Protein 1
Amino acid sequence: MADSAREPRDGALAPPAPDADEALMLAYAAGDAAAFDRLYARHRGPLYRYVLRQVRDAGAAEELFQDVWMNAIRARASYAPTAKFTTWLYTLAHHRVVDHWRQRGGVALVSLDDGDDGDGTGALVDALPGPRTDEPETRVASRMTAERVREAISALPPAQREAFVLHVESELPLADIARITGEGVETVKSRVRYAYAKLRSALGDAR
């Protein structure tokens, strides 16, 4: 687990606002347990979905999810806001996922890009449910579409899936994803572009 607790390093940021994630983490490091509760409430959903997308097993995802938070707790004394809190947290998560696969001799987070990227700029919203959620037919169609989206994301090559989830579900900018994964911004951009192209191909008839 030692690799999992590695911390990202970056240039200094401006002093955080009182309610910012970085300020809350500093407050927690100083002994304010309620500050950690607020951080956990803010980030537990996106972080869990990120881990689940990477390991595709609910039991393993729950274990790794808890490990990430435990690593954050252990690192609180040495925490410094040299990067955004989300970048710091997802870097811990990235390392833990990599360790998970390394320990099992499994799939590495490497890109399997095939070069068929299309224009790469379209949104995935065409594949998401519409707003008429009160209609039974719409609810059924929405569930079916959501399942197709999950399956299509799960089928992406690991590096593309990670970049896509961080960019779209966790709403992190490409530069932050590059810091988290240790890749160049252009590499991350390509992975997101390939992911979009493959998802559009897989979900082309989902409207």
Protein 2
Amino acid sequence: MKILVVEDEPKTGDYLRQGLIEAGFGVDLARDGLDGLHLGEQGDYDLAILDVMLPRLNGWQLLAALRRTRPDMPVLFLTARDLVEDRVKGLELGADDYLVKPFAFAELLARVRTLLRRGSRSQEPQQLRVADLELDLLRRRALQGGRQIDLTAKEFALLELLLRRTGEVLPRTLIASQIWDMNFDSDSNVIEVAVRRLRAKIDDDFEPKLIRTVRGMGYVLELPPT
């Protein structure tokens, strides 16, 4: 799942981005309201987290503009403005939740997951499955042959990407940008190591083998031909 964060304070923005990525989400970070509006209108986001006091376009204006093109996208305001009038204004403009700074990241994460469960995509399947491999997106749990598989946040995100695009060969550049939010470095083996560790957990002790390396192209998760 992908989240848009619009936050002009660098330390807070980077903290949010890193924490949400480690929790298994894809994250785009905008530093002002106009950039946030451009990303929000062009991107396919499951949720937006907005500050109120933003340069070029404040959070109230940004939310109003987003609601015209993305009426069903859940929106969480995260701001230092803690007056009751501000909270009421945010909710009346169409925000789904309002969290005041300073905040505990655990609470933010709980609210994000609650909004995602209630959001416009709640009608989509919340479990991905191929053969005996099942990924529960809400409980953040993986099962293989009925046995729970312990995955790190990155391994879970990688497996989710592979399952969502079952049968499609995913280039290393795409995996790097989606999971590690970085440009692919041909000298780095971070992707190979991650795939190898994931394969050890879901393939080594099970049949059929699902993850395949396509030499010179990337990786694919699919049932082997019969």
Protein 3
Amino acid sequence: MSDRTFTLDEAHMLLPILESLLRQGINGKKLIEDVDAELQETAHRVFLNGGMMLNVVHLARRKAERERAIRRIKDALAEIDATGVQVKDLDIGLLDFPCKVEGEVLLLCWKLGEPTIAHWHGTSEGFAARKPIDERIANAGKKRGK
């Protein structure tokens, strides 16, 4: 895991790129679930019928799509991880940005669909413990004027 921390402004600047990568991961996961359901249904029909003719080309194509989706998900998550941002939940699109505030690391918390990063929680807490960003956090890491 990276030791990188972000200011609120830095985290906001990364959101468009991270959102795109997150959507790639979510769409890939959905495709995998769809293919898995199709293959499971096919196996069930074969079992119930005691065997049957299958469209092997179609099934091979779907398995190849699944493998490509796995690769896309891994690549997208690796890219997000390389920035220092933590993917907490791919299903709902939950990201945490480590942020140093007054010498303590906390996590700026953003969920796909939210217009901005407006919440934070401690490193030992999770989504349910989110609190609104206050002035102390919003100004963390900013240079003070003289």
